[in-house]
Amino acid sequence: MASASLQFFAFILALFGVFGDIAATLLPNWKVNADVGSNIITAITQMQGLWMDCTWYSTGMFSCTLKYSILSLPVYIQTARTTMVLSCILSAFGICITTVGMKCTRLGGDAESKNNACFAGGICFILAGIFGLVPTCWYTREIISNFLDQTIPESSKHEPGGAVYTGFISAGFLLIAGVIFCSSCFKRQQGTWIYPAKQHHFPSTEQESNAGYSLKDYV
Fold first, then answer.
1. Where in the sequence is the signal peptide annotated (predicted)?
2. Does domain 4-27+71-194 have CATH number 3.20.190.10?
3. Strand order in 44-48's β-sheet?
C-alpha cells in the first residue's frame, strides 16, 4: 500500500512537471529587459522566448513577433528548442506508460508487466528532466555572461524570466518522479533476488536405492 501511494505521489509530481514543461516551452519570457527611460509613460518591457519576441508597453499595448528563421538563431536557442520539445514528448510518454504500470490501476496485465511498464515510465521521466534541465542551465549561463559583459550596452542586457524558473522547477519534478518510480520497481526486483523461490531437491540416496533394486533383478 505504501508503494502504491508513493507511486501516486510521483505521478502527481510528474503531471505538474509535464504541464510546467509545456508552459516553459511556449512562454515568451525566457529573457526579460525593462527599459523605463526618462518617463514612466514610455516604459517598455521586452521579452524573448524560444519561439517569439514580445514587447509590452506601459500604455497596455502588447505586440509579438515570431521567429521564423531557424538558422539565424544562436546555437543555445536552437538547442533549447530541440531539447524542450524532446522533454515534452518524453514526459507525455512517461505519463501514458506509468498510468498502465501503476499499482493503483487495473491496466497492464500481471504484476511483472506492470513493474516493467512502471520502470520504463520512470526512465522516460528521468530523460525528460535531463532534457529540460540542460537548456535552462545553458540559457541562464548565456544571460548571465551577457549581463556581466562590459562591452554590451545596458539596453541590450537581459535577466532570466519566469519561463526559465518554470523550466527549472518542472525538470526537478520530473527527475524526482522518475527516481521514485525506478526505485520502487528496483526494490521489488531486489526482493525477488534475495528471497528466491524454494526448489524441491530429491535426495540422492533414494535414487541410488532404486538403481540397486533394478540391478538385482537382472542377476
1. 1-24
2. no
3. 62-66, 52-57, 44-48, 31-35, 159-160
Q: What are the residue ranges spanned by the domains of the chain?
A: 4-27+71-194
Number of other residues whose CB lies within 10 A of the CB of residue 154:
8
Among 45, 123, 30, smallest CA distance to 80 is for 30
Q: Per-residue b/e over 5-29, b at no fewer than 16 CB within 10 Å?
A: eebeebbebbeebbebbbebbebbb
Question: Which one-letter amino acid corresponds to residue 219?
Answer: V
pTM: 0.78
d(CA 74, CA 72): 7
Give me 107's grid cell.
Answer: 491496466
> Mind listing the pLDDT tens digit for each residue in 52-62?
988 887 777 88
Phi-psi region of 60 (alpha: psi -120 to 50; beta: other; left: phi over 0): left
Nearest partner of 90 among 51, 137, 139, 131, judged by Cα:
131
Q: What is the pLDDT of residues 82-117, one digit of tens each?
A: 999 999 999 999 999 988 888 777 776 777 888 888
User: How long is the chain?
Assistant: 219
